[in-house]
C-alpha cells in the first residue's frame, strides 16, 4: 500500500493507493504497518508534510519526492528550466500521457490557481499557462476596487452579466473558458479530424468540465500522476 501526498499552496491532500484503487487517508490514524512507501509532491510549504515524513522515517518506510525531469519514458517537458515547472502540472501531464496514450490532451487543474497544459499525441508537452483561480480572480477585483462586489449565492455562469456579482463571476468563468479554447489552437484541432481530450481536475474542475463537450473531470488526476510517476521513474 502506497501513501500518496500532494501538497499544494492551500491544502495537503493524501490518499492510500492499494489494489489499483485510491482510498481516503485519515492522517491522524494512518495504517503505517501496511504502508510500503510514501510518494509525495510539493509546490507549497507544509509542516504537516514534515510530520508525516518523520513518522514514515520512524517506521522505516521509504519516501520518494516526485520531481520534474526533461523526459519521462515517452513524455517530454516544454520548460527549458524543468525544475521551474510546478510538480502538480508535471503529474497531471504524466496522468494524461498514461491514461490517454497517443491522444492529444489539455490538462486543466482549477484550484487556487488554474493551470492549463498542452500535450501532443506524441507525448510532447508544448507548454501551458498559469491563471488566477476563479476565487482569486474575483477576490482580486473586489479587494482592489471600490464598487465591484461579490455575492455568495451568485453562481459562475457562461452568460453576460447584468448585475455586478454576475459580471464579476461570469467574467472569471469566461476568461478561464477562453484560455482553454486558446489552448486547443496550439494542437491544431480546428480544420482537422484530430481530437483532443480535455481533462479537468481541482476544486473548480467539475464546474468547468460542464462547459466542454466530450471533456472529463478526474478529481484524482494529480494523485494518479503521482502513482504513475513512481512506477515510471523506477523503470527509466
Ligand atoms: N466542490 C468543491 N470542493 C472543493 N473546492 C471547491 C469546490 N468548488 C469550488 N471549489 C474551490 O476550489 C478551490 C480548491 O481547489 P483544490 O481542491 O484543487 O485545491 P487547490 O486550490 O489546488 O489547493 P492547492 O493549491 O493547495 O493544491 C477553492 O478555491 C474552492 O473554493
Ligand atoms: C501554479 C501552481 C501554483 C499551481 O499549483 C504550481 O504549479 C506552481 O507553483 N508552479 C510553479 C511555476 C510554474 O509551473 O511555472
Ligand atoms: K493543486
Automatic annotation (TrEMBL):
It catalyses: (R)-pantothenate + ATP = (R)-4'-phosphopantothenate + ADP + H(+). Catalyzes the phosphorylation of pantothenate (Pan), the first step in CoA biosynthesis. Its EC number is 2.7.1.33. Pathway: Cofactor biosynthesis; coenzyme A biosynthesis; CoA from (R)-pantothenate: step 1/5. Homodimer. It is found in: Cytoplasm. This is Type III pantothenate kinase. It comes from the Bacteria. Keywords: ATP-binding, Coenzyme A biosynthesis, Cytoplasm, Kinase, Metal-binding, Nucleotide-binding, Potassium, Transferase. Its cofactor is NH4(+); K(+). Belongs to the type III pantothenate kinase family. ATP binds at residues 6-13, 112. A monovalent cation. Ammonium or potassium. Substrate binds at residues 79, 86-89, 164. PANTHER family: TYPE III PANTOTHENATE KINASE. The active site is at residue 88. The keyword Coiled coil does not apply. HAMAP family: Pantothen_kinase_3. K(+) binds at residue 109. It comes from Pseudoalteromonas marina. One of its GO terms (molecular function) is pantothenate kinase activity. InterPro entries: ATPase_NBD (IPR043129), Type_III_PanK (IPR004619).
Amino acid at each position: 500500500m502506497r501513501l500518496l501526498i500532494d501538497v499544494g499552496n492551500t491544502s495537503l491532500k493524501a490518499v492510500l493507493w492499494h489494489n489499483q484503487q485510491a482510498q481516503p487517508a485519515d492522517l491522524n490514524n494512518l495504517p503505517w504497518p501496511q504502508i510500503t512507501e510514501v510518494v509525495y509532491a510539493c509546490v507549497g510549504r507544509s509542516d504537516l508534510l514534515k510530520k508525516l515524513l518523520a513518522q514514515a522515517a520512524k517506521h522505516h518506510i521509504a519516501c520518494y519526492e516526485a520531481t520534474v525531469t526533461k523526459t519521462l519514458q515517452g513524455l517530454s517537458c516544454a520548460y527549458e528550466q524543468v525544475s521551474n515547472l510546478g510538480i502538480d502540472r508535471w503529474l497531471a501531464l504524466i496522468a494524461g500521457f498514461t491514461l490517454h496514450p497517443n491522444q492529444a490532451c489539455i490538462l486543466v487543474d482549477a484550484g487556487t490557481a488554474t493551470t492549463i497544459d498542452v500535450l501532443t499525441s506524441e507525448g510532447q508537452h508544448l507548454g501551458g499557462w498559469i491563471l488566477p483561480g476563479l476565487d482569486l480572480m474575483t477576490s482580486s477585483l473586489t479587494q482592489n476596487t471600490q464598487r465591484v462586489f461579490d455575492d455568495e449565492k451568485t453562481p459562475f455562469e457562461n452568460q453576460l452579466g447584468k448585475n455586478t456579482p454576475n459580471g464579476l463571476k461570469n467574467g472569471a468563468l469566461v476568461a478561464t473558458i477562453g484560455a482553454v479554447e486558446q489552448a486547443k489552437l496550439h494542437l491544431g484541432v480546428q480544420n482537422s479530424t484530430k481530437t483532443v481530450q480535455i481533462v479537468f481536475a481541482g476544486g473548480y474542475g467539475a464546474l468547468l468540465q460542464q462547459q466542454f463537450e466530450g471533456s472529463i473531470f478526474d478529481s484524482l488526476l494529480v494523485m494518479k500522476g503521482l502513482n504513475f510517476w513512481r512506477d515510471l521513474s523506477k523503470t527509466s
